[in-house]
Amino acid sequence: MVSRRVFGVGVSLAAALLLVGCEKDDPNEIKVGAYLSLSGADSTFGTDTREGIELAVEETNAGGGVRGKRIRVIYEDDKSNTYEAVQKVRQLIDRNKVVAILGEVASSRSLAAGLIANTSHVPMVTPSSTAVEVTRNRKWVFRTCFTDDQQGAVAARFITNDLKKKKIGLFFAAQDSYSSGLARAFRTEIRKLGGEIVVDKGYQKGETNFRTYLSELKAANPEVVFVPNYYNEMVLIARQAKEIGIPGSMFVGGDGWDSSNLVDGAGAELEGAHFTNHYAPDVPWENSKKFVTAFTAKYKHLPTSLTAQGYDSAKLLFDAIERATEPTPAAIRDALEATKDFKGATGTMTMDKDHNANKPIVVVRIEDKKFLYATQLLAE
Ligand code: PHE
Q1: CA of residue 275 to ligand 1 center, whole Å
Q2: pLDDT tens digits, residue range 115-132?
Q3: 130 in ligand 1 pocket by Cβ < 6 Å?
Q4: Chain CA centroid to CA 49, Å
C-alpha cells in the first residue's frame, strides 16, 4: 500500500518533469527569449524595457503576427546579476530553443551573456547597451542604440558648445564597463575640444558614501561634473553633493540616469542637470508621438527611454524575422545585418558594419522633477 502510494507520487512527478522538460512546440508560434534585470539593483531597467517589448508584441500579434504566426516572448529575470544573465541565456537557447534573444540593458551583462549567444549562433539584440565591446567582433550580437564612444563625445560637445564650460570634473564607477568606457570616450573628446579636466576620480561600484570624493571634487572648483553612472548610485551622489553645496545644475550624466527612481529619489537635488539619452517623451519626432500615445493608453504613465528602446528593439527584430529567408537563427541574423532605414520610436535605424544603430543623441534636462527634451546632437 505504502509502496504503491510512493510509486504513484513518483510517476506523477516524472510526468510533470517530462511536461516541463519537453514543452510542446506550438507550430503557430515563434519563440523569442528576453533576459532582463526584472529585480535587483537595476530593476527599473528591466521592468521598463519589458513594458516596451510587451507593447510591441501586442501590436505585432494584433496585426497578424510574423510570417502568419504569433510571437511569444519568454522572459527571464537575471536579478541584475552577470552570472544569472549567462545562465538565463543558456537556458533560453538550450531548453526553450528560442530563435533570437532580446537583452540586456546593462553593458556588463550584455557582454557576458552575449558571448553565449555568439558562440551558440543565436542572434541577440540589445536594446540599450552602449559599451563599444558589446558588439565588437561578435557576428551574432546587435544593438538598436548608439555607442558610448558616440555618447561620450556628444556629452563633451554639449558641455563645450552649449553650456560653454571648460573646467570639468569627472566622476565614474571604475570597474563598470559602461561607466568607465563612457568616461574614457568623454575624456578623449574634451581634450580635443580644448577643455580641462580639473579632477578625475573613479569610485568602486557598490560604494554608498561619496562624501570624501565629493569634497575633493568641490575643492578642484570645476564648472561642470560629468558622472556617467546608473541612477541608483546617482541618487546618493546627488543628495550628498547637495549637503556639501555642489548645485545639481552642475551635473551632466549619460543614459544610465534614465529612471523614474532618479527623480523620485533626487529630483530636487538634480534640478537643472542634463544627461545624454536615447529619447525623451516630448522628443519632436513623428514616430515617437505615435508610440507615446499607444503606450500611455495601455499603461497610464509615460514611457522612459528604456521602454522606447525595448519597443524598438522588439519591433526591429520582428521585422527581421519577417524579412528572413526562413525563421531560423542564421537567417534572422542575416536579416538583422541587412536592416536599413527601420523607422522606430527612437529614430531611424540602419545597422552599420559593427552592428550598431546610429541615431541622434538626445540631451535631457531635469526640470521640476521631470525629464524634458533639451536638444539633439548627431553622433559623429
Ligand atoms: N547604456 C547603459 C549601459 O550600456 C544602459 C542604459 C541604457 C541605462 C538606457 C539606462 C538607459 O550599461
Answers
A1: 12
A2: 999 999 999 999 999 999
A3: yes
A4: 8
